[in-house]
Each structure stands twice: as C-alpha cells, then as structure tokens.
Amino acid sequence: MSTPDPYAALELPITATAEQIRVRHRQLALTHHPDRPTGNEEKFKAIQAAYELLIDPARKQAYDATQRLNREMEEQARRARAAGAAANESARRANEEQERILRERMREEENRRKREERAAREREELERIMREQTRQREERRQAEEREERERARRKGQTRRPEEERAEAGGWGQPGRDRAREHGHTSYNTFNNDPPPPYTPQPNPQHQAASEGTPLFPKAPQHAAKYSQSFAIAWILNSLSRLGNFLVAAAATLAIMMLGLVLAYGAFILLLWAAVAIVNLVSWLIPVIANVLFWTMNTTYNILFWIVNTFCLAIYWILRALGSIISILAWIFSFPGRIHWPARPAPYERNIAVVGVDPAGITTAYELFRLCSAGNIPHRITLYDQASHIGGRAVHIVSITPSEQVVLGANTFPKGASLLSSAAAFLGLSTDNSFNGGIDLIGSGTGQFGNYDGRSWSYNEPTLHNIFERWGWELGLNMRYGGSQAKAQDLIREFRGKLQKLEFPVTVHTLNTAGLLDLTAKTAEDFLTTNGVTESVQRELFDPWVRAQYAQNLGTISALSALAAANNRGTLKITRPEGMAGLWERMLAATDAKVQLKTRILNITAESWGGWSLSTSTETKKYDAVILAAPWGLTDLTISPSLLKPPQKIAYTAEHTTLFASAAELSPDAFSGQRDIPKVIMTTPCSWEYYETAGKSGVDGLGHAPFWSLHLLKQVVINGERMWLYQVSSPAELPDQELRRFVGGKEIGFVYRHYSPNAHPLLVPRTKFSDVLLGENLWYAGGMEEVLAGVEMASVMGKSVAEMVFKQWKSEGKFLPKERRIPVDAPAEEK
C-alpha cells in the first residue's frame, strides 16, 4: 500500500522549510479539527500524520530519499522505454537498409545476366553472319574460277586462272607484289587483306606558316610598307583574276561558235539528203523542193552570220580587255614593289602567380595542362617570400640525419580526386595514412579517442569512421537516445550536396549546390536546430573540429564543421618526402620559373591591360597576375586601389611540439585509461562546455591542455629506440608537462614550432571575396574564407585556372598589338 504524500496533505511544496510546515499545520488543524463545525476527522488525522512525518528530520529525510529513489526509478524506466523504442527504430531502419541493398544487388545481378545473354546472342548472330559471308565469298570465288577455266578451255589455253591473274596484276599474291614494285599501295578486298595504315604527311607550306616563315621566301620583307603594299597586291590580284575570267568566257564563246559551225554542216547534209530523197521519190516536185531549200538556206545563212559576227566581236573585246589587265597586273607586281607579309606567330602570354602554396601550385599545374591541350603559348612565373614551396602546408623537421618529419598537411582526404589523379599521373603512389598531420584528424584510421581532461567520452578501436557506423550501434543509441542518427543524416545530406558542386567553384556554384546557407550560421546553432543534442555535439562533433581547425562549435560555421565530420579517411604519399614531393613534381611538370625569397611590394595596372610586379630589386610586366596567397597574409599594395578588395580574415595561432621518449603514454596522465589511443582529441568538460563553446584559442581550450596528441612512429635517436609524439596546443607546453604525459620519464628529443597563422577562423559569414579583382587580376586565396585545407586550396586553384584559360581561349592565340606587352618593356626573360 502506497504512503500518502505528506506534502500534498499539507498543501506545501517539497522545498518547504520547518517553519512553513508548522505554520501550515496550525492553519489546517484549526480548520479541519473534529470539534469545529467544518471539521473532518479523517482529514485531520491525515494532516497530523503528515505533520509528524515532516517535522521529524530523520523520518523526513528517509521519506525524501524514498521519493527521490522512486522518481529516479521512474525516470530510468522511462529512459529504458525510450531507448528500447529507439533501438527498435534503428533495427527497423537497419533491416530496411539491408533489404534495399539486397534488392539492388538482385536487380543488378538480373541486369548483368540479361546483358550477358544479350551479348552472347549478338556474338552468335555476328559469327553466323561472318560464316555466311565467308561461304558466299568462297562460292563466288569458285564460280569465277569455273568460268575462267571454261573460257580458257574454249580458247585452247592451258594456264590456270591464278597464273593469268598474277600476270595481269590481279588480286593474287604475284599481282600484289608487282603492284608494290611499281609503288602502288592498293590492297585486296576480296581476300579481306587489311588496308595499310594511313600516315598523314605534313604540308611543307603549312608547316612553314605555322613556324612563322613566309609562304614566299624569295619576296623581300619591308615592314614599313606592309599595309600599303598588301592592299595594292590584293587589288591587282583581283584584277588579274577578272581578266582570266574574261579570257575563259571568250574561250567558251569560241567553243560555242565552233559548235554552230558543226551544226550548220550537219544541217546542210540533212537538207541535201532530203532533196535527194525527194528527187528520187518523185520528179514531179523538183521546183518546190528547190524553192524550199533556197529559202531555208538563205534564212539560216543570215542568222548564222549575225550570231557569228556578234560572238566574234564579244570574244575579241573580252580577250583584249583581259590581256590588257593581265599586262598591267604583271607590270605593277614586279618583284620589289609587292611585299608579301609573313604569317604572325601566336602570342606567348606571360602570367605571374603570387604564392607557391597549394593553391598557387595547383593553379600553375592546371593552367599548364589546359593551355597545352588548347595549344595556347604561355609562360608561368611563381613568386613567394618563403624559402620553400608549399607555404604553410609544408614544414620539414629533421629528427636525425636520416629521419625527417613533415609538419603541416602531409596527407589529403580520400575524396580529393584532383590531388589523387595528379599524384597518379606524376608517378607517386598513395596509401592509407596514419601519420601525423592536421588533415589526419577525423580520418578514422587507427585508434582514436575523445578526452575532456577528466574522462573519456568515446574510444574507437577499429579502422572505421565513427560517423559511418554510429547509427547502427545499440550502445550509442542507449547513450545518446538516437540523436547520433540525426547527425548521421545531416552528414549524408552534406555529402550529397558536395557531389553536386561543379567547377569552377564560385559563390554561385556553392549556392546552386545548397552549401551557401551553411556558411551563415554557427555549427552549434545548426546542429541544435536540427535536433542534435548537446552530448553528441560535445563528445562526437567538437573533437573533430578542434583537432582539425583549432576552433569550437560555437565559433565555426556549420559548413566547416560538417566538412570536418565528413572526413572518410586520408591518403599519404608513400615516398619519404610526402606531400612536398607532390608539390615539387607538379611544379616540375609545368616548366614554370619559381622565384623564392622574393617579396612582392607593389602591383601596378598598365594601360595595355596587363600588370607590373615590383620587388625590392626589379619590376617586370605580365599579361595577367594571380594572387594565390591569402590577402590577409600579404602586405603588398595594388595601384590603383581596388574598388572591392579581398577580405582580410583572422587567424589562430598554434604551437606544434615534437618529442621523443622511450616510454609510452602513462595512464596516470589520462585519468587511469589503460589502453590509450594513438590519436587523442579533446573536448571541454560538460560543466564548462557552454562557457568555452563560443571562444577560441586558450580561452576555448577547456580542462584538457592540448587540441590533439598523436603517436607518430618509432625512431632511433642516439642508438636508442623511442616513440615519437606530436602535440598541437594553443599555448607552449613546458618540458615538465611533456614528461607528465609519459609518466615522468626522460625526454630524448624536443622540437617546438610556433605558427602565428596556423588556421583561419572559419566564422559564419555571408559576404565573400571576388575571384576576379580587376582586368586580368585574379584571386585564388578566397577559399580560406569558407573552408581550409590542401584539398579546398587545390579546388580553388583549379577553378581560377579554368576561368583564366576560358578567357584566353575566347581572346584567341593572336592578341592585337595594343593588348600585348610593349616591346620596349620585355616580360620575364626566357
């Protein structure tokens, strides 16, 4: 039997104090006392029992504990029911997905079987047709041989038909040999001999014209009289052609007159034949026949004389006019008066790329590839004030003389088809990555875990990305109540939008693919609006974003957070030089000139449409300039000032520490965790999440002392085998903290690298920089306003290269003189 609620009997909240309980008891006891007219004995007893229970501290505490226990049990039962429902829903979705996959496989198998049957029927039909054609050819050949033997037998010949055909150069082998001796290349179609391969022979005149040599090499070149002489030559040539046409017309009339003469003779013969027939038939009508003949003959003679005289007059007039015009054209076209111009050579465009980072290297590589395919002459020059190529994405550290580690982006995502195809084309093999690097985080390769400085929220020991499998695990459904399934749907939807993105990538294409809206809101607001709980955001999303971009969900855009979670895995170059080798080979393939340690001070617009680049030592002119370096990291000036300059975005600093120790990571430094993952990502604790989610840098770090920690590999230092670790943090980590990570053991090697502009702050924004800043001035560094990483930088570089090539293709190979670099100011020396 359940105990009545004493708080309800006294009509008090459970937070009521002892004084409130006494006051309320006195009021209700006076009201419901049995001695009073309005009294109620049963209710009075209930009030007294409730008062005695609540006024006794021990009994009240026991009752409150019992009620809390009951409420907790009810809450647990409710959660268990909700978890069971979510598990059933997940199981149902999994079954539906498996059934759909099975149906698709069965459908594909049925289609494949039908295709194979159709192909088999087509092959059988083709073989039958070929056999039928072979049989018919054989029957025709045998019939012809029988006919030839029959003709030979009738003529008394004893030679076989094959010998006759061979002697006559027919379709037999002797005939073919004889044809080849005489230089013929005909082939035998009766015996199905294949035709010889066609080898096109170059036209010497066309080849000479394409190389810029004159079509008439004996004619002298006088550039000063080029325009006037060319016009005179064209007029005289036209007059000469008119004269030739008139002469041809006169010759045609002469042929017509000859035809009339022949017709006249034939008519006379016909008349004499008619007269003879008439005289022979009857002697009675000779007078009539003679009169008729005389009349017709006289009429025809008169008409013939008129036509003949008119045609002769026209013939001699046209012939005389044509001769006069030809003589005048010959006189005025005397060698020395006409100067035949040489065909101009295609103009070689000169383009400068400022910044030898992934965007600049990809721009040069793709522009070279497109121009080579389109046969557009060009020359590329790259500038960078750094001493190495690759920009911030490459930083090589020598551990030992034979051991090097590349900090920065030493890997790229598996979905980066542009970099994968370039590596394969340049002869570089790739493999799944588990080496240190910014882009490694979230790859799902090897062991990784999420640590908040006090406890582990998730530890993944398999090679599969958590975002690919979390929707089907019962344990995660029990922990997050199905919220992870909503996050999984958001990532799949984002992945589908990425596949719709087309080149060249601009604000318009981002909007068409449905990605532009994701840049206007924070990831925290976006996930909360779509039903993703705080626990999923803190324990599953935030570690990926912090490790890859050194930001929290409250400061980063939704597009960048989904891109970090969408990382299905990374690839690395199998050669020791890593990504640096890929950048070097891409530059080597372009045959471009690279000027390192060169700082661009000023870019000035020229009147002919190009730009001048000024360094501390020289100034050179180019037809076009591409700014590949982010505008906020350059200090150059552009004259005149741009109407809409690129945006200057903020960056976050990062300390990267490499240290080696013979000891492994200590469980004491990581809350007693025995199996410590190889990749540790961090997130704020639950009680500090809201305070740090909207901050960056040290203020947004939380209780954990770093963004991420990687176990890279084993190295040999001073003859001792050690573990090499990499730590990324917003502040420098002292040696004491590093030793704490390995249980207080000694550190054999330490290297610290500070990057003040490690990552762009990918805050929500609605305005973006233009790609075309001015005439022939392009900007390829704007992708860092949306997404960061070598993949997106390469995508932007390819997009700018395609737009430049499209403009050059529309302008053509032969630019007008006013659009070329002036002769007195030559471009970059070859």
Describe what this molecule looks like in 3D.
This protein is of the alpha/beta class and 830 residues long. The chain folds into five domains: 6-143, DnaJ domain (Helix Hairpins); 164-194, no CATH class; 223-332; 349-433 and 573-649 and 765-819, FAD/NAD(P)-binding domain (3-Layer(bba) Sandwich); 438-568 and 651-760, Polyamine Oxidase, Chain A, domain 2. It is built from 22 helices and 22 strands. β3 and β4 form a beta hairpin. The longest helix is centred in the N-terminal third of the chain and has 99 residues, at 57-155. The chain starts with 5 loop residues before the first helix and ends in a 19-residue tail after the last helix. Residues 90-99, 132-151, 175-184 have a biased composition (Basic and acidic residues). Residues 193-203 have a biased composition (Pro residues). Pfam families: DnaJ, NAD_binding_8, Prenylcys_lyase.
